[in-house]
């Protein structure tokens, strides 16, 4: 790593930008866990986070990462950072604290509240959602998490005419992968809840799942018989909605890039090469239905993002990104804005990078230049520090 002198930011050709993997591993130099840094908090349970912890970093344990973020939930740049730093620390920011406050105060006997996280590119929407996911996990919500909705409509793995819904398209591999993720995130809780199916599921003349079967059997069937995975996802979400209404569990819907569901463009085509809309994709339909307010004992937390919808990138505002139909579908909801770092947040991140030996010997005027050139944009700070 280079020492950072004044002026901090020289005009370095981007073609020479090092990747995160070039960071020097200095585990023996790292601060021991017994020492408490001024920019960290020892309160690693998000259920206890409050304004007292604002602009502090908290640690997400490796066990938690493995259970709820193994298959997605962190942006790629942040995942690279975790690998490089051998540490997973989330910054406690105002948008997440606002949502956690609302969730703590909510009346769960009432229809679900909906929270829509929005903001300019690179301001931390996905990491705000990750903070909420961690909260939901420790508070024993069943997690219905899609780590990036647009993948289903852009990075198409396999399409097939729906086995159960005529005129629609199945994404069997994506459905099977999502069921695996769901099981990994919720297995421990589902084993405690012991939820049962409330109806028979007939897949074909030879295969069916009887009413009263453990919900895990429905999940495993979809994983093992991917032809019917979309039907299993639909059944699972319907069962969880009923169980929540009956007070048997709490469920939280968490979707990053929800406006992909309201797009008028996908890369999915039927056998006649006709483009299929999200509402014609059987994997998407039950999740869209879960964002209605016709159930209780849960919450809906979504992000909208300019990257999730190819046709709508001129504004980061929810009304524009969702379109008229999508906006009216979610209304009423609470908008949650993510923005650039505050001065306190920026200083915390700089101190963290110093601790991780990602930047060294930065002078006050050099730090000020970094602040001005990045406008304290979270992604901008990460990108600019690659040069240092």
Overall radius of gyration? 22 Å
Largest sheet data: 5 strands, parallel
SSE ordering = EHHEHEHEHEEHEEHHEHEHEHHH
Please state the overall shape, judged from the principal axes of the Cα atoms.
globular
How far the N terminus sits from the C terminus, by CA atoms, comes to 7 Å
Relative helix content: 25-40%
Topology, number of strands:
11
| Proper CATH architecture of the largest domain | 3-Layer(aba) Sandwich
The CATH class label of the largest domain is Alpha Beta
Runs with pLDDT <50, length 5+?
1-35
Q: Find the CATH topology of the largest domain.
A: Rossmann fold
Determine the mean pLDDT.
90
Number of domains: 2
**What would you call the structural class?**
alpha/beta
Beta fraction? 5-15%
Strand order of the largest sheet: 4-9-10-3-11
Figure out the total of helices: 13
Protein name: Small ribosomal subunit protein mS29
GO cellular component, one term: mitochondrial small ribosomal subunit
Keywords: Mitochondrion, Ribonucleoprotein, Ribosomal protein, Transit peptide
Family: Belongs to the mitochondrion-specific ribosomal protein mS29 family.
Write the layout of secondary structure elements.
Elements: E1 57-59, H1 62-68, H2 76-85, E2 89-91, H3 94-105, E3 113-119, H4 125-138, E4 142-146, H5 150-154, E5 160-161, E6 169-170, H6 172-193, E7 201-202, E8 208-209, H7 215-224, H8 229-245, E9 251-255, H9 285-290, E10 298-303, H10 318-330, E11 334-338, H11 343-355, H12 364-374, H13 378-385
Parallel strand pairs: 3-10, 3-11, 4-9, 9-10
Antiparallel strand pairs: 1-2, 5-6, 7-8
Helix pairs in contact: 3-4, 6-7, 7-8
Protein name: Small ribosomal subunit protein mS29
Organism: Ooceraea biroi (Clonal raider ant)
GO molecular function, one term: structural constituent of ribosome
């Amino acid at each position: 790593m280079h020492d950072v002198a004044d002026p901090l930011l020289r005009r370095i050709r981007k073609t020479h930008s090092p990747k995160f993997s070039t960071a020097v591993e200095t585990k023996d130099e790292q601060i021991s866990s017994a020492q408490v840094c001024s920019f960290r908090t020892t309160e690693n349970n998000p259920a206890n986070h409050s304004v007292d912890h604002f602009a502090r970093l908290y640690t997400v344990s490796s066990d938690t990462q493995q259970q709820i973020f193994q298959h997605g939930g962190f942006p790629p740049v942040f995942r690279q950072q975790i690998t490089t730093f051998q540490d997973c620390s989330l910054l406690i920011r105002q948008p997440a604290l606002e949502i956690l406050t609302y969730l703590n105060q909510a009346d769960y006997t009432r229809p679900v509240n909906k929270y829509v996280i929005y903001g300019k590119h690179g301001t931390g929407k996905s990491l705000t959602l990750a903070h909420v996911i961690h909260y939901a996990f420790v508070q024993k919500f069943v997690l219905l998490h899609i780590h990036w909705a647009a993948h289903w409509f852009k990075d198409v793995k396999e399409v097939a005419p729906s086995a159960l819904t005529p005129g629609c398209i199945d994404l069997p591999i994506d459905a099977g992968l999502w069921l695996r993720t769901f099981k990994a995130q919720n297995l421990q809780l589902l084993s405690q809840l012991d939820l049962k199916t409330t109806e028979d599921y007939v897949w074909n003349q030879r295969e069916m799942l009887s009413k009263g079967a453990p919900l895990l059997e429905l999940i495993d069937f979809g994983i093992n018989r991917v032809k019917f995975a979309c039907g299993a996802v639909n059944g699972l979400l319907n069962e969880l909605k009923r169980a929540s209404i009956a007070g048997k569990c709490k469920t939280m819907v968490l979707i990053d890039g929800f406006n992909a569901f309201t797009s008028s463009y996908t890369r999915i085509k039927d056998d006649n090469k006709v483009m299929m809309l999200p509402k014609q994709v059987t994997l998407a339909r039950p999740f869209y239905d879960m964002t209605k307010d016709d159930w209780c004992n849960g919450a809906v937390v979504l992000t909208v993002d300019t990257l999730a919808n190819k046709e709508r990138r001129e504004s980061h505002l929810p009304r524009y990104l969702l379109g008229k139909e999508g906006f009216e579908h979610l209304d009423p909801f609470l908008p949650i804005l993510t923005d650039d770092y505050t001065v306190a947040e920026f200083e915390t991140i700089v101190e963290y990078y110093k601790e991780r030996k990602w930047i060294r010997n930065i002078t006050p005027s050099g730090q000020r230049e970094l602040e001005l050139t990045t406008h304290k944009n979270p992604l901008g700070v990460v990108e600019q520090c690659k040069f240092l």
